[in-house]
């Protein structure tokens, strides 16, 4: 991979390689864009098959965080970090403290948080060395598990979609097929049950499915069948790339709205959803509740304020739908437009008051920033 060509193509600001032989730390920090504020994005720990694979993943994730923060109305930019290693075997206090020192050297340009393979305990170890970390446990002054807030945001985005398709924000009597009963998926089921929705669920873990049957009266289906069940809303809350060439012809829903990242295998699949009349709530818009919640820690965490901000995901999804209609484009394209319009407006304000050129914020295709 020609890394500088990649940085130029997608206008990344900075890539930092972190290495500490004593602790075994091998980490990468990517800062994509800080026009709206410091870059915030989680720290992922994963045993990547190669260093190049780790760099590619971190670059992709950082760019996505720029869009997510922008459409969420946060005064934050996009960044991400990855630690190369097995989270089951390679974790240590010293490793995360060492990583915290690297974050501290950036002087606040990057703020980390938990992600796949890391925990609130890991964030607490990072916090020993730097204040530029959020998502720590409540006992350390943080906000704790962000899953309930992610689920709440998905519910609000789902309301916006239901209103567009059925003319009401109520989910009572609507059939929702939830794929994946992890932390977010299960919280979402609880909220939907309270709304009076009819639940169809699938998960590879039978105990989670059985629990959903007992608690919510959910109807179970096999994991491979969930994409094809007749429903009003399909809520993918597990792995990404759910909408692909194989699954598209099987879909029997009118709305796709869930917490999973990278729901579309390729952008063309979003275009096909639009052609088929299926309303898609773009993933980084509807699943931003967790980010919004941990970002509130930067102001001194207040759960009521964080909840109020997460509720605004309804407005964000409505905004995406409005742009989709205005520009006659699929919603995944409209979401990028919403993010870019906000970033460019702030960049224009900065140019006006400072005279500094921000050529890297000129409008580009929906694949770039």
Automatic annotation (TrEMBL):
Active site, UniProt feature: 80
Coiled-coil intervals, chain numbering: none
Keyword Hydrolase (UniProt): no
Binding-site positions, NAD(+): 180-185
Residue span(s) of domain Glutamate/phenylalanine/leucine/valine/L-tryptophan dehydrogenase C-terminal: 144-348
Assigned keywords, A-Z: NAD, Nucleotide-binding, Oxidoreductase
SUPFAM superfamilies in the record: Aminoacid dehydrogenase-like, N-terminal domain, NAD(P)-binding Rossmann-fold domains
Gene3D superfamilies: Leucine Dehydrogenase, chain A, domain 1, NAD(P)-binding Rossmann-like Domain
Pfam assignment, any one: ELFV_dehydrog
Lineage top rank: taxon: Bacteria
Molecular function (Gene Ontology), one example: nucleotide binding
One Gene Ontology biological process: amino acid metabolic process
Keyword Nucleotide-binding in record: yes
Family per similarity comment: Belongs to the Glu/Leu/Phe/Val dehydrogenases family.
Entry protein name: Leucine dehydrogenase
Organism (species): Rubrobacter xylanophilus
